[in-house]
Amino acid sequence: MPNPDSHTQAEQKKWLEKIRALALPEKVRIMNVCGGHERAISMAGLRSVLPDNIELIPGPGCPVCICPEEDVYDAIQLALQENVTLVAFGDMLRVPVNVPRGEVKSLEQARAAGADIRPIASPMEAVQLAQQLAHQQVVFFATGFETTTAPVAAMLAAGVPDNLSVLLSARLTWPAVAMLLDSETPGFDALVAPGHVSTVMGAEEWRFVADKHHLPAAVAGFTAESLLAGFYSTLRQLDEDKAFLDNCYPEAVTAEGNPAARKILDQVMEVVDANWRGVGVIPASGFALRGAYKKHDARKRFPVLQNDHAARRRVGAMPPGCDCARVVLGKLYPNECRLYGSACTPRSPIGPCMVSDEGACRIWWSSGVREPVTTTQDEAQDKLSQHMVV
């Protein structure tokens, strides 16, 4: 019987040999957008086997990392001040907000202070809980990109109990990449587009990278061989000076994606300008409930969510000293953050990139990168001036 591991290793070796045979520039920077891609790259050690002139840059693929600080703050205040049961995806419970020392700074701490906060893994758990707690208001703090937002839309389209409302903080992925490409210094030469998002939204959503910006783009899956195939495709495009969109994940991704999921998203939600933590407002990058579904909008149901945040210091920002925003934008490697591995670790995270399993800092730490990069003062200043452009 053939050994499947041998076949996998042979596939990986084949792609590596094809990559090494290309005539490439002195430095090539490939950005991956998906947190799942970054985890697969780091855990498989792909950076160590690729030619030294190829840089793999983690990009804005962590929804927990870019969830607006004020949205997390609102969820905390809602859970503490109102008689509600608040549910959220598990990673969100540890994300810190900017409050004075001694105040509750995360949903986890709010739960320890007595708030009824429960982690869930799917929207249907929120529905089931609302049905069980028929006389209690249940709020679903719904965060994520298109992959997790589509099930939230399907949940609402199917009908939910009157006592269930949604505190929505959902984002689209492609506008952040478009913002980087529209800037003076995008910081990458090719893009490997997210596999999971593309199963919902379709590969064609990424065509603008090649058509408008003339950069190679490829959709890839989550195995080492699929990622290597995606890298090879973009590198070959650079070598041949032909930028196009390549689907290297055809077993799961089609050109148009999932028509049913996209239809439900459009039925339940509208696309709006939205804030990304530490980055700012990105046009047409967020979701909001539309039409009759607004009756389940927690922001309309609870007065505590209509507060003006202007009086809070550092509202919307990353914690002091935290470079998560620059890591998210691919302007800094995780271990180049000033707090990485010292003040900020998974046991005591300062920034959201060290909280989530899709955060680049957490992924790098889990893959064994434990020491921060030390730089001279001049190098640090050079990096800072580069990052200030975006």
Please tell me about this protein's structure.
With 390 residues, the protein is of the alpha/beta class. The chain folds into 3 domains: 14-63 and 174-247, Rossmann fold (3-Layer(aba) Sandwich); 67-168 and 283-311, HypD, alpha/beta domain 2 (Rossmann fold, 3-Layer(aba) Sandwich); 318-387, no CATH class. The protein is 39% helix and 16% strand. It has 17 helices and 11 strands. The strands form 3 sheets. The chain has a 5-stranded parallel sheet. Strands 4-3-5-6 form a 4-stranded parallel sheet, with helices on both faces. Helix 8 crosses helix 13. It is globular. The protein starts with a helix and ends with a helix. The model is unreliable at 376-390 (pLDDT under 50).
Overall number of domains: 3
Portion of residues in helices?
25-40%
Shape: globular
**CATH uppermost class of the largest domain:** Alpha Beta
- Tell me, rounded to a whole number, the average pLDDT: 93
Spatial sequence of strands, sheet with the most strands: 2-1-7-8-9
Beta-strand percent range = 15-25%
CATH-assigned homologous superfamily of the largest domain: HypD, alpha/beta domain 2
The total count of helices amounts to: 17
Largest sheet: 5 strands, parallel
Count of β-strands: 11
